[in-house]
UniProtKB/TrEMBL annotation:
Its EC number is 5.4.2.12. Its cofactor is Mn(2+). It holds the Pfam family iPGM_N. Keywords: Glycolysis, Isomerase, Manganese, Metal-binding. Mn(2+) 2 binds at D13, S63, D435, H436. One of its GO terms (molecular function) is manganese ion binding. The lineage of its organism: Bacteria, Bacillati, Actinomycetota, Actinomycetes, Streptosporangiales. This is 2,3-bisphosphoglycerate-independent phosphoglycerate mutase. The keyword Cell wall biogenesis/degradation does not apply. It comes from the Bacteria. The keyword Manganese applies.
Length: 520
């Protein structure tokens, strides 16, 4: 079926809104098109963080929850919220799978290994969850518990790694059990680019204590001057008295609640264990991981089905999903409610990278290729909806490189303007929205009163959402005064002229009073 009113959904990744200020790479960039959308009457501001989308209150948004709730048309309890609920209720500590693992370890004097990102960025992990599992280990009187610490510097300011490792040592001291056995940066342990040699360094460190260097304690592992995310594999000799290789019968708990960046390591660990006669090692993960290994999760995922993808499929409306590598899963798997089933009416275009090397050296990434793909798809009369993610403000923003991020904003501005005008000329509406803030705030104070330092992470700021419509409709915030990016799914369906499923409880944002849509 052809959509009566075809359109384009552009997710401008990391497009948040904040008042003009130093460190606001958007207000300080030359971006007349985006600025006009926000300042003019075409746009509204939407919540993209905390409880409004299904995250714990006060938590910054992220690309997974952002795309998921846009597609689902309602807030979805994110993994971090579910873990937090289980911590509060005590259910995590007494979880049957954890209990079973601990009982076995206690009987056989095995070692519990915890592998996790050590920060409170709360995008992939929270250091407090480690404290909770250590309490469980203590309750079972486990003698050997070791922590394989992954240093962050992306979800929290770079350079704070040592602070978090000393906080971890405090947690260990208070819980009376555990020791940090190894340290490695997230750029190795949580690589998801498919660079197996990076993942392997982390896997061999965890499994066999294999590393080129050692340090007497965790904080000393950071003394080499590398960014926190790039700390090379280090064995800690002090507390554990040398490496703590995984023996058959041990248990490993992956402590990140988010899957995407931990799944490659978890999978490699599973394969290496099986090939080295350690198949009785119990593997568990805090949240559900999309692995081949099928690792049991302590906290199951929330259902995000019944959203945009199902509605498009049911109405037989064709959509084309377009992104560069970094955000490809977001416009497909996550937008579809973490559902990888192929759909007949859906086409995917993976835009290849334009250049190699540090992204801050080519902040425009491959916007040229992406714009071309969007324009080609939008020209096809059989395509009802084109969805594309313009990743630059997030991907370049994460480097913390301010000047490059401004360039990224300017490149996105030009690309979005070109797409909108071409779509408009072809009779299509375009809805533009951020999935969470990033580029609008690139300074932060790590502790109250401390001077601001550079920061490339996500924010809790609201995000702009704007409509360029052929029929002249505008967006409105429903009475009550607030809306979140969960409204994107129903708004897209409304603009396409399709029925909105009951599961999408968020209000659509099309303002009838400005330009009534003739039904039928
Ligand atoms: O890169 C990532 O893993 C996170 C930040 O840690 O960002 P996003 O949610 O945009 O993927
Ligand atoms: Mn994002
Ligand atoms: Mn990001």
């Amino acid at each position: 079926m052809r959509a009566r009113m075809p359109g384009v959904l552009l997710v401008l990744d990391g497009w948040g809104h904040a008042p003009p200020a130093p460190g606001n790479a958007i207000s300080e960039a030359e971006c007349p098109f985006l600025e006009g959308l926000v300042l003019g009457r075409r746009g509204v501001l939407l919540d993209a963080s905390g409880g409004a989308v299904g995250l714990p209150e006060g938590t910054v948004g992220n690309s997974e929850i952002g795309h998921m709730v846009m597609g689902a048309g309602r807030p979805i309890e994110y993994d971090s919220l579910r873990v937090e609920q289980q911590v509060k209720s005590g259910a995590l500590r007494s979880h049957p799978l954890l209990r079973e693992a601990c009982v076995r370890l206690a009987q056989q004097r095995g070692t519990l290994h915890l592998v996790g990102l050590i920060s409170d960025g709360r995008i992939h992990s929270d250091i407090d969850h480690i404290a909770e599992v250590l309490r469980a280990a203590r309750a079972h009187a486990l003698e050997r518990v070791v922590i394989h610490a992954i240093t962050d510097g992306r979800d929290v300011p770079d350079g704070t790694g040592a602070l978090y490792l000393s906080r971890l040592n405090e947690i260990v001291k208070v819980s009376g059990v555990g020791a940090v056995a190894t340290v490695i940066g997230r750029n190795f342990a949580m690589d998801k680019s498919g660079a197996d040699h990076l993942t392997a360094q982390a896997a061999l460190l965890v499994l066999d204590g294999r590393a080129e260097r050692s340090a007497p304690n965790a904080e000393d592992a950071l003394r080499g001057g590398a960014p926190d995310g790039s700390v090379t594999a280090t064995v800690i000799t002090g507390a554990t008295g040398g490496p703590a290789p995984v023996r058959d019968g041990d248990a490993i708990v992956f402590m990140n609640f988010r899957s995407d960046r931990m799944a490659p390591l978890a999978d490699m660990v599973a394969v290496l264990l099986a090939s080295t006669a350690r198949s009785r090692v119990r593997l568990l993960s805090l949240g559900h991981y999309d692995t081949h290994a099928g690792i049991p999760a302590l906290v199951p995922r929330a259902d995000a089905s019944g959203g945009l993808a199902d509605a498009l499929e049911n109405s037989e409306v064709r959509s084309v999903r377009i992104a560069e590598r970094e955000k490809f899963e977001h416009v497909t798997f996550y937008l579809n409610g973490r559902d990888a089933r192929p759909r007949q009416q859906e086409e995917h275009v993976l835009v290849p990278p334009a250049a190699t090397g540090p992204v801050q050296d080519h902040p425009e990434m491959n916007l040229r290729g992406l714009v071309q793909a969007v324009i080609e798809a939008a020209a096809r009369p059989d395509v009802g909806l084109v969805v594309a993610n313009l990743a630059n403000m997030d991907v370049v923003g994460h480097t913390g490189a301010y000047h490059a991020t401004r360039k990224a904003v300017e490149a996105v501005d030009r690309a979005a303007a070109q797409i909108c005008s071409t779509a408009f000329a072809g009779g299509r509406w375009t809805l533009l929205v951020g999935d969470h803030g990033n580029a609008e705030q690139m300074l932060t104070s790590p502790t109250d009163g401390a001077p601001a330092i550079g920061y490339g992470g996500h924010t809790t700021n609201r995000v702009p959402c704007a409509l360029i419509s052929v029929r002249g409709e505008r967006l409105k915030i429903p009475s009550g005064g607030e809306a979140a990016i969960c409204s994107v799914g129903p708004t897209v369906l409304r603009l396409l002229g399709l029925p909105i499923p009951a599961a999408m409880s968020a209000p659509e944002l099309v303002d009838d009073s400005a330009q009534p849509i003739r039904q039928g």
